[in-house]
Structure formats: C-alpha cells, structure tokens
Amino acid sequence: MDVRLEEALKLLWLKEEGWDENEIKPIIKYSIKDEDFKILEEKELAKKENGKWVLTGKGRHLASEIIRRMRLAEWLFYEIIEGDESLSNEAACKLEHILTEEAVERICALMGHPRVCPHGRPIPRGKCCGKKKQDIIKPIHLPLTHVKEGEVVKVISMNINDRKILHKLASLGFVPGVKIKVVKEKPLYMIELDENIISLDREIAGKIFVKNLKKKF
C-alpha cells in the first residue's frame, strides 16, 4: 500500500485512541488530504460518520498492523540502538513502512512480546504473541518470574490492568525504569528497591517485564 495511505490509516487510528493534534503532528510525516481518505473509502477502509472520517472494520485491522509495526520499531531503537528519543521516533516511523511480517514477529519475540510501546501506548497483538512453542530468538525482555535470586534487573513494562495494584506499586517507587533486585523467589517474590523490600505474588510478577542488566548485547 502507498505510504501516504498507510499514514492516513495511522492518523485515524491515533484519533480513535484520543490523541490530540499536537501529539499526532510529529508522528504523521505527510500532510494528509481529504482525497487520501476518499481513496481509503473506495477501498472500504474508511467512511464518513457525522462528518468525520473513521475506520471501517477492514481499515481498523490494517491500521492495527501499521501501528504494531511502528510501536515495535520504537522498541527496537529504544532498547537496541539506544539513540536520541526524537531521532529514534523519526527512524521508527520510517522503518514501519518497510518491515516484513517475519521481521515484525522477530522484533516482537526479541522484545518479549511487549503489550505497550516505550511510551506506554498499547501494541496490537500479533500471530506470534501467545504461542506456546519456543521462540527462535531469545527475548531481552522477560517476565519477572524468569529472574533468579540475586539478579538485578530493570523494570521495562507492567501489563497490570488493576489500577489499585498499579497505584500501590507506584507509591513504593515500583515503576518502569527502576532497577530492582530479586531477593527471594518462593513462596512470594521478594524484591529489593531502594533498600525497601516489596513482596509480589506469582501472578502479578508474571505480568511485570524486565531487562536483565547482566546481559551484554
């Protein structure tokens, strides 16, 4: 599909997520015109409702693939290349248009099948997510339940839907970006954070993804 049309689909997706114009402006690299949406309408990817362009079911499916590529590309630059954030975002927006499905799945596996991008926005799930078979590529982001006693890790993301639990952890300083040490694995996960000990049950620990700081890449 033409890059401009992909950007138009992405624009409609971001608006559905509630992004304002200032947030969208640096991400959409083209000046999307009404004629672009009309082409999408001809392809049954968009339609007008109450005077506004919105995605059709078919368009939403395609847009989700584009958003998935973009947000996984953000992880690639954020964690592997570790460039300046603004430059990384710009590079990710360019890379998303040329990634193959196989490449996207490999990046996803490498990142440990993240559910949110580095900025906390949700990543649409792909075919590779949730597979029981062993990934070909060993991920660099792992559930906290895979960390052994004595290891120091960095919290990357927390796929926890319970706001009360998130608020409680945040009040203790347990947020993405902090370094923690696993003191004990059973029966509860005992975590050392800033000389404080935090206990987590296995279910919650399995929803917290971390990066092992001892690994070399």
Would you give an account of this structure?
The chain is built from 8 helices and 8 strands; from the N terminus they run αααββαααββαβββαβ. It has 2 domains: 108 residues, Orthogonal Bundle (Arc Repressor Mutant, subunit A); 72 residues, Ferrous iron transport protein A (FeoA) (SH3 type barrels). A 6-stranded antiparallel sheet has the order 3-8-4-5-6-7. A two-stranded antiparallel sheet has the order 1-2. The model has no long low-confidence stretch (mean pLDDT 83). The chain is of the alpha+beta class and 217 residues long. α1 crosses α3.
CATH T-level fold name of the largest domain: Arc Repressor Mutant, subunit A
- Give a count of the beta strands, DSSP E runs of length 2 or more: 8
Overall CATH class of the largest domain = Mainly Alpha
Strand content: 15-25%
SS element count, helices: 8
Q: Domains counted in the coordinates: how many? A: 2
CA-to-CA gap between the ends? 35 Å
Question: Any guess at the CATH architecture of the largest domain?
Answer: Orthogonal Bundle
CATH superfamily of the largest domain: Winged helix-like DNA-binding domain superfamily/Winged helix DNA-binding domain
Which structural class should the secondary elements be placed in?
A: alpha+beta
- Tell me about the largest β-sheet: 6 strands, antiparallel
Taking all residues together, what is the mean pLDDT?
Answer: 83
Strand order of the largest sheet: 3-8-4-5-6-7
* Helix and strand run: HHHEEHHHEEHEEEHE
